[in-house]
Specification:
8-stranded mixed β-sheet; globular; 3-stranded antiparallel β-sheet; about 35% helix; alpha/beta
Length: about 400
């Protein structure tokens, strides 16, 4: 078995640093955000975030068994070390890679603070001073956050074209010029919840929703819709074709993610741009989408797929095929700012997702005076590391009961 441990690598003075502890906690926003800290003996702590979901904090803290004593400056080697050391735990994909992604991001933050460089510079370049944001929206009362703890969906009656259009206008008025809605609905399950086929009624309702939003916001606003992997090739094709007149930015996740050729078949049959990639891991699971031109916009999640360096590799592969890269992002401000550094460092980055409009304390998770998003953009931080610090009081206030917390 390959050994990615340090093996006593020599260090220049000032770079002989060790990891002393790795910890994780869960903050309840509109999702359960898995925050990560990497402590070092240099007095520097790196902050990161792994994709939401159970089991990730436990996997993060498991890595103390072999990462304590390692040098946090070796970010990419340590990511490979985690994957290799936990390969018997399913470590080449899934939750282990997700946990490793959060640690990797925290390592970049620590390395930047130690070396006095922003993360985008460690990744190799800076292509832009600010990153364009698209806002993930929900139709009126169809989606709400109950005291920041969990999401709550409304009855089917809330999903009217008018509700979508009203929300679209509201969000555009906030300064966003790119927005996205979910297009999968409860009525998709009628008359059968299992087979993935859309009835004419369900299909026509979706077209009415898209038409209402486009009419409300005009042609200058970029507009996308997400289907959450629900449909057959036939139904996805019918939907994508019917939406061609509305000039969508993209239609996302139209078929289940396991079969790349099915995704490619839908892409071949329609002019509507298709996006996917958020639930695939590492370059190995995304290369087929890229090489087969099965996707028009690639949307991996850096906090899922392997962290910033792995995402950069994926983006570079996509650039070779002239495919834009728009990271999926349902994170707290921590993961969001990590994605901002990534988008600053790659030429084919397009828009970055923001999915916390319902969380009125989202900005308060970081120690800063100005809003994170301004007029639909996030400025790329120039401070060392990710350029952010946690507001520990806000973390404690919204920490999931029963989690260990962060020092």
């Amino acid at each position: 078995m390959r050994d990615y441990s340090s093996g006593g690598i020599d260090r220049p003075q000032g770079h002989d640093v060790e990891i002393t502890k790795i910890e994780a906690t869960v903050v309840e926003g509109n999702f359960e955000w898995n925050l990560v800290k990497v402590h070092t003996d240099a007095g520097v702590t790196g902050i990161g975030e792994a994709y939401r979901g159970g089991g990730v904090p436990e996997l993060v803290e498991y890595t103390n068994r072999f990462l304590v004593g390692e040098n946090p400056l070796d970010v990419e080697r340590l990511f490979r070390y985690i994957v290799q050391e936990m390969s018997g735990h399913g470590g080449t994909t899934g939750k282990v890679v997700t946990a490793a992604s959060g640690i990797e991001i925290a390592l970049w933050d620590a390395a930047g603070k130690i070396l006095d460089l922003p993360v985008y510079q460690l990744l190799g370049s800076r292509y832009r001073d600010r990153v364009r944001i698209y806002c993930d929206c929900h139709a009126g009362e169809a989606y709400a956050v109950d005291e920041g703890g969990f999401t709550e969906y409304a009855d089917a009656e809330a999903y009217t074209p008018e509700a979508y259009a009203t929300e679209a206008e509201r969000v555009v008025d906030m300064g966003f010029d790119a927005i996205k809605f979910d297009l999968d609905m409860e009525q998709d399950n009628e008359p059968d919840p299992y087979n993935g086929r859309l009835t004419n009624a369900a299909l026509n309702h979706k077209v009415e929703v898209v038409a209402a939003v486009r009419e409300a916001i005009g042609d200058e606003i970029d507009l996308a819709f997400d289907c959450h992997w629900d449909y057959t090739v036939e139904s996805a094709t019918r939907l994508a074709r019917k939406l061609e007149p509305y000039d969508l930015m993209w239609l996302e996740d139209v078929v289940p993610p396991e079969e790349t050729d099915a995704q490619r078949e839908v892409a071949r049959r329609t002019e509507t741009p298709l996006a996917t990639g958020e639930n695939r891991f590492r370059i190995h699971e995304l290369s087929g989408l890229i090489d087969k031109y099965a996707v028009d916009v690639l949307t991996p999640d850096p906090t899922t797929c392997g962290g910033l360096a792995e995402s950069k590799r994926i983006a570079e592969r996509a650039e070779e095929r002239y495919i834009p890269f728009s990271p999926h992002n349902v994170c707290s401000p921590v993961g969001t700012m990590a994605c901002v550094h990534l988008c600053a460092a790659i030429p084919n980055a397009d828009v970055l997702e923001y999915h916390a409009l319902e969380v009125d304390w989202w900005d308060e998770l970081l120690e800063r005076e100005d809003p994170i998003i301004s007029n639909g953009y996030i400025d790329v931080p120039t401070e060392p590391g990710l350029g952010i610090e946690l507001n520990e009081e806000t973390v404690r206030e919204h920490e999931l009961s029963g989690t260990s917390g962060l020092d």
